[in-house]
Design brief:
TIM Barrel; binds magnesium ion; 18 helices; binds phosphoenolpyruvate; Glucose Oxidase, domain 1; 16 strands; alpha/beta; 3 domains
Length: 543
């Protein structure tokens, strides 16, 4: 039992705190077993009709929130859902005595058998089965969603939230606490970008129940039960010494909404556009035309400056249904990111060509990069594909330890690199970024990561390659100062952090940033590195 004033430690996300009532997210209920109805065929047929209409409406809402890129996918799904032959087949099942939900599932399976061998239908099968599940859930009164409140103010508490879950966050979600998940988890990334205060990896949050009031205090890395204003930990404040930050601060985006919000910030362009976020709910591959249209809207809306677009980074923590990636024992070490080139070469080329269409139409400066590059061969192959597809600056993400050692061999071949510290930490420390027990190893202040970053920055500048950092570490204002002190050319932060990172980088000179770096390097642990760096920074910010 948690009493008033209890402190639950975790890892904070964001700089502002919030107090609100707890809403525990319940795990989804399983669908009921196949069952017979009690005899009224007409009522059962009516129930099926209403459920189909309700699911079609849900699909329309999802289409609206997913943006135009996915709209045509949802339209295609609705055509399947409302197919008359399918409905008639389900009615025959109802007449045979099966209840409405079971009948629809049986009808879909009958279609699957009849049309097996028809390539076009088979491609759609997973979608139709998903729709049948939604219809059956609607009939059984089971919610497949999170059932979040839509009004009031709540801190939602759950194990961890998948991309499909975070897409359902409503206006009423003002704070988030996860029992699992680490500082680089999808939940952390989304909360930072939406400015929702969060504490992740908070194992004791399992004791929180509906109706309690909690203070989410991210700067203090804690949740305080019935916490008060005076419990809030204040972030470091900086006094700007110059108008421009030491190095440009770009924004990370994943949607049109992000692009619009980022252009209201002081971001100088976009340092990471996570394209896979557009497709997390797409069950069929978007056409080139739909992609080009979606990218063009985003390029036009993005803040002034270059826009660094990452080709699809599906797999592991970012499942993309239409790519049918299958099960892997160890997905973080599996076929993800650029490794999709083996089986989905066409999609990567489509992406690059659609981006070129969008670049030309929008007149924006576009840089493209590939995720999860592990060898110089992959880097060169991607550079050739990208240069053949359009007028881009071409680069790669540095997220694997192996590519760090290959930077010198990429001299003259790449225009830029961008360090993804989320994955780089995962692979440097052999610590799964989804495993809450290992959150401490994913702390960017780990001396091992700081030394690796210094080496990457030095190797890139020796090879004449522009270097930036776009992982979550670059959203921490103090850490961004450290990165500038190492010699990185730019940072890209979660859009809600752009202002704070710019402030920190406008309050220091290069010499001072180097002093902050030296102080961090003198620490023997993440805690010492951070304390030493903040000590020097507070001295600077007070003067
Ligand atoms: C990273 O790994 O640091 C990164 C920016 O990519 P993502 O978090 O999308 O894997
Ligand atoms: Mg990554």
């Amino acid at each position: 039992m948690v009493s008033s004033g209890t402190i639950l430690n975790g890892m904070g996300v964001g700089l502002s705190a919030v107090t609100a009532e707890v809403f525990r997210v319940k795990p989804a209920m399983p669908l009921p077993e196949a069952a017979k109805h009690s005899g009224d065929t007409a009522t059962e047929t009516q129930r099926l009709k209403s459920a189909i209409t309700a699911v079609a409406e849900q699909m329309n809402l999802l289409a609206e929130s997913a943006g135009e890129t996915s709209a045509e996918i949802f339209e295609a799904l609705n055509m399947l859902l409302e197919d008359e032959d399918l409905f008639d087949t389900a009615v025959i099942q109802i007449e045979d005595g099966w209840e409405a939900g079971t009948s629809f599932i049986r009808a879909v399976e009958e279609f699957a058998e009849l049309l097996s061998g028809d390539a076009a239908f088979e491609e759609r099968l997973a979608d139709i089965r998903d729709l049948a599940k939604r219809v059956a859930a609607n009939i059984a009164g089971i919610s497949l969603g999170l059932d979040l409140p839509t009004s009031g103010k709540f801190v939602i508490v759950g194990e961890d939230f998948s991309p499909a879950d975070t897409a359902q966050f409503t206006e009423a979600v003002v704070g988030v606490v996860t029992i699992q998940g680490g500082p680089t988890s999808h939940t952390a990334i989304i909360c930072r970008s939406k400015s929702i205060p969060a504490v992740v990896s908070c194992s004791k949050a399992a004791d929180l129940v509906d109706g309690m009031t909690v203070l989410v205090d991210p700067v203090g890395d804690r949740v305080v039960v019935e916490g008060k204003e005076s419990d809030i930990t204040k972030p470091l404040t900086f006094i700007a010494k110059s108008h421009d930050p030491l190095i440009p601060v770009r924004a990370n985006i994943g949607s049109l909404e992000d692009a619009i919000a980022a252009s209201a910030s002081a971001a100088e362009g976009v340092g990471l556009f996570r394209t896979e976020l557009l497709y997390l709910s797409a069950t069929t591959q978007p056409s080139k035309e739909a992609q080009a249209k979606g990218y063009e809207e985003i390029l036009r809306a993005a803040p002034a400056g270059p826009i660094v677009v990452r080709t699809i980074d599906a797999g592991s923590d970012k499942p993309v249904p239409f790519l049918n990636m299958g099960h892997e024992e160890n997905p973080a070490l599996g076929v993800r990111g650029y490794r999709l080139i083996e089986n989905h070469r066409d999609f990567i080329i489509d992406q690059l060509e659609s981006l070129e269409t969008a670049r030309e139409a929008s007149g924006r400066e576009v840089w493209v990069m590939a995720p999860m590059i592990a060898t110089a061969t992959e880097a060169l192959e991607f550079a050739a594909l990208a240069r053949a597809a359009g007028q881009f600056k071409v680069g790669i993400m540095v997220e694997t330890p192996s590519i760090v050692y290959e930077i010198p061999s990429l001299e003259g071949k790449l225009d830029f690199i961008s360090v993804g510290t989320n994955d780089l930490s995962q692979y440097l420390f052999a610590a799964d970024r989804m495993n809450p027990a290992l959150g401490a190893m994913l702390n960017p202040w780990q001396p091992g990561l700081i030394r690796a970053l210094k080496q990457i920055s030095e190797a890139s500048s020796a090879a004449g390659i522009y270097s930036g950092v776009c992982g979550e570490s670059a959203s921490d204002p103090a850490f961004a100062v450290l990165l500038a002190g190492m010699g990185f050319d730019s940072v890209s932060s979660s859009r809600s952090q752009v202002g704070a990172v710019r402030e920190a980088l406008s309050a220091v000179t290069l010499e001072q940033a180097k002093e902050v770096l030296a102080a961090a390097l003198s620490g023997n642990s993440a805690e010492e590195a951070k304390t030493n760096a903040i000590g020097v920074l507070s001295g600077i910010s007070e003067n």
